[in-house]
Amino acid sequence: MTTIKDIARIAQVSDATVSRVINDSPLVKEETRNKVLEVIEQLNYHPNTLARGMKTKKTYTIGLLVATLTNPFYAETAKIVVDTANNLGYATILCITDNDRHKQKEYINILKQRKVDGFLFASVLTEDKAVRELIKSGAPYLLFNRRFSSCQDVNYIVLDNSAGTYMAVEHLIKLGHKKIAFIRGTHNFSTSVERFSGYKKALEDYGIPYREEFVVDGQYDQEKTIHATKILLNLPTPPTAIVCCNDLMALSAMEVIISANLKIPEDIALIGFDNIDIAGHSLVQLTTVAQNKSLMAEIATQSLIKMIEKTQPPDQLVQLVLKPQLIVRKTCGHKVAEKLQK
Hints:
The chain is 44% helix and 16% strand. The chain is built from 13 helices and twelve strands.
């Protein structure tokens, strides 16, 4: 069996240099790296993870817990996590919680039994006892996309969701809209809570009265969003614009609006959130708030592995809030007609 010592001897470098190349350390010169990689390829070398783990007391595995894979946001970010971890020498165990507290707790226990080195959560609610207990145990972890309602002492990487919906509503106001509705997500997800707060703040800052009948629950669910959109369209004075808590909800709202023989954006403007791939399709052209999914998932994975490998000070929290970007497409692309403002 080929060993690191064999590679080092043939490449005429130290064992430590070979180890750094295998672990993609930035401390190796490019010329040396290429020479070592060439020998690795010639010898068809594959690191012995089991032996490596016995020596380091690690499994070189992380647990990734996501809420669902039916939302493309989670599928897209999960792939980036898996690829990033793999490039750093770690395997990933993927668990789908379906936003169920009990299922999440069971997965945490299973992952602990599998002795994973760290936990990456894209599934927490605004409060989650099982995750809090895991954090207290000292296990390396990081929350991404969602966080607790109170998390001063917690590691997280999220988007500035409030700023995102603020930008969306502000854009609509500048187009002349005053009757702007909001279809909310689930109340115990931080994404939904924060996006709703951005909606309210934008109305307040621009002197537009908040109207309770313009806020309905879609709960990140297709059928509930369809029902919510019908409620809005059937109001005595319907809105001229709708902001949805994510893109999938916006697509459901779009279906209802078109079925009602209304034109987008001439009769009603529409904005989503997340910028999933289908939002930019030529037949959809959905205006949306984009979060840099790739960057969020990549940094989250890298940060977790730094915690595992103790290359980051243990008392230094990871708390990063990424900036959103408004992507303007055809679903709200021009000034609102004067008749709709009244």
